[in-house]
Amino acid sequence: MSGIILVLNAGSSSLKFAAYEASGPELAARYAGQMEGIGAAPHFLARDAQGAVLAERRWTDTPPPAGHGGALGVIIDWLQSVLHDRPVIAIGHRVVHGGSEFTEPMLIDLSVLAELQELVPLAPLHQPHNLAGIAAAAKRFRGVPQIACFDTAFHRGQPWEAEVFALPGRFYDQGIRRYGFHGLSYEYIARRMAAEDPVLGEGRIIVAHLGNGDSLCAIDKGRSIATTMGFTALDGLPMGTRCGQIDPGVILHMLGSMGMSLSEVTHLLYNDSGLKGLSGLSQDVRELEHDGNPAAERALGHFAYRVRREIGAMAATLGGVDALVFTAGIGENDAALRARICDRLGFLGIAIDPQRNERRDAEISPPGAAVKVLVRHTDEERMIAEHTQEVVAASWRERAAA
């Protein structure tokens, strides 16, 4: 198969894209970018594979594009100006929630869309925008296969004890279980670790995906066996604006004794908690580290403590650890937080070399350390492109054999 595979990652006010050229089994990154500020102050930015800016636009004197459909129109018009006659042969989409049914990337049709729509209440901040991106792409690329790649799929196959809540069994049967998220990021890291070092790739690896949304994943022999996020992307570690793990009794108290409405509690837990809520300042760790006031320091201290505690839990699940991998925006770039997190983890064999850490080396543990501590860039868009290529190629083989 040859042509362009387009990857779309739709958020609430942004639409990220990446274009890969497929030539046989090979995938070559060509362009990437995003439209930010959808619905408010749109900002379009496109780069080449080396990161050089090729196009940038803000709408100040003319009406901005409307919604995700308008944003996609801008992206497609620009891509067509650089792709020339190279056709878009498939489109891959990040879909946050695949529920219990979607355990692998899926060719999208009307029945799949209907099932994904039913999962919106489980990922209210993400799923509607993922589906809006699919709808917008379907209008612009009629007849081009679209592939849904699920953030939950990598975690399917975890043992029952890792998925279940201690509720009556009927709730598990109705889909009330731990799904886990950031699966595309974890799968990308697992594949790359196996390619770099096949022995380590078969080992016990803890991956820390730390960004505005945060989670950990315990990976054994390339498979997810535990993760910190649960039924929704609200659970687990404290995040930029999300609370992470919380005693459910607190929610009952808010709804009962405090008289808060369901919508008020929902907004609080998703939008006004985490680092933002603890610091009273910002969800951006760079601002908190620069500010240095006591509330900002406490927020960062709590964050590091919770990540450290959950690393211990992941190690217990794995029965030991061979590597700890930091990834995503904070994990890849914040040496100070990596150092705070790894402090007091020496009992697991985890230690970091201060100079390697400050230089952001690929390996930041001391030479000969029992546990490798690594920093790796994650690439969810490439993972989506790889899945899209695989699904489309399989579909073509099936048609050819029929």
Protein topology:
Blueprint: E1 2-10, E2 15-23, E3 26-36, E4 43-48, E5 53-58, H1 67-83, E6 88-95, E7 106-107, H2 110-118, H3 127-140, E8 146-150, H4 160-163, H5 169-173, H6 183-196, H7 198-201, E9 204-210, E10 214-220, E11 223-227, H8 248-255, H9 262-271, H10 274-279, H11 285-291, H12 294-318, E12 323-327, H13 328-333, H14 335-342, H15 354-359, E13 372-375, H16 380-401
Parallel strand pairs: 1-6, 6-8, 9-12, 12-13
Antiparallel strand pairs: 1-2, 2-3, 3-4, 4-5, 7-8, 9-10, 10-11
Helix pairs in contact: 1-3, 6-16, 11-12, 12-14
CATH third-tier fold name of the largest domain: Nucleotidyltransferase, domain 5
Helix content: 40-55%
Strand order of the largest sheet: 5-4-3-2-1-6-8-7
Helix and strand content put the structural class at alpha/beta
Strand content: 15-25%
Look at the structure and give the CATH class of the largest domain: Alpha Beta
Distance between the termini: 18 Å
- Quick check: average pLDDT? 92
Largest sheet: 8 strands, mixed
Radius of gyration: 21 Å
CATH architecture heading of the largest domain: 2-Layer Sandwich
Number of domains: 2
Quick one: overall form? globular
CATH superfamily of the largest domain: ATPase, nucleotide binding domain
Order of helical and strand elements: EEEEEHEEHHEHHHHEEEHHHHHEHHHEH
